[in-house]
Amino acid sequence: MDELEKTLDEIYKSSPQYFKSEHIETHTHKEYIKQWYENKKEQEKREIEEQSVKVIMRQTDYTKEQALESLNRNGNIEKCIEEYLGVTKKHECHSMSTNQAIYKSIREWMK
Question: Long-range contacts of range 1-7, CB-CB < 8 Å, 24 or more positions apart?
Fold first, then answer.
C-alpha cells in the first residue's frame, strides 16, 4: 500500500459521511482527495466568517447583514469595530529636535 492510499484510507475513516460509493467509482483518488480538502477549506472559511460576524454583532449594534457587509468591506474585526466607533488613525508628524535638524542639514550639505 503506497502513501497515497494510506492517506486516502485515513480520510475515509475520518469523514465517512462525505464519501459515498457512487463518488468512488467516478473520481480518481487524487481528484477525490483534492475535492475533500477544498470542501474542508471552504467549510473552515465559512465557520471563521460566521464567528467573526458574531463577534462584530456583540461589540456593535449591527445586524447580521450589516456585520457581514462591514467585515467584507474592512477585512478584519478590529477595523469593523474601529469604523463603528468612529476611530481615526492619527498621522504622527515626526518633529525633530534642534540637534537633529542641525545634523540633518550637515549630512545633506556633505552629499
Answer: 4/29, 4/30, 4/33, 5/29, 7/33
Please tell me the least confidently modeled range out of 1-5, 31-35, 37-41: 1-5
Q: Is 39 helix (H, G, I), strand (E, B) or coil?
A: helix
What pLDDT digit, counting tens, does each position of 44-69 carry? 999 999 999 999 999 999 999 999 99
For residue 96, the Cα-to-chain-centroid distance in whole angstroms is 39
Which of 78, 39, 72, 46 has its CA nearest to residue 60?
78
Spatial contact of 53 and 68, defined as CB atoms under 8 Å apart: yes
Number of neighbours of residue 92 by Cβ within 10 angstroms: 6
Helices (H) and strands (E) in the chain, counts: 6, 0
Q: Which residue has the cell 529636535?
A: 97
Check residue 96 and report its DSSP letter.
P
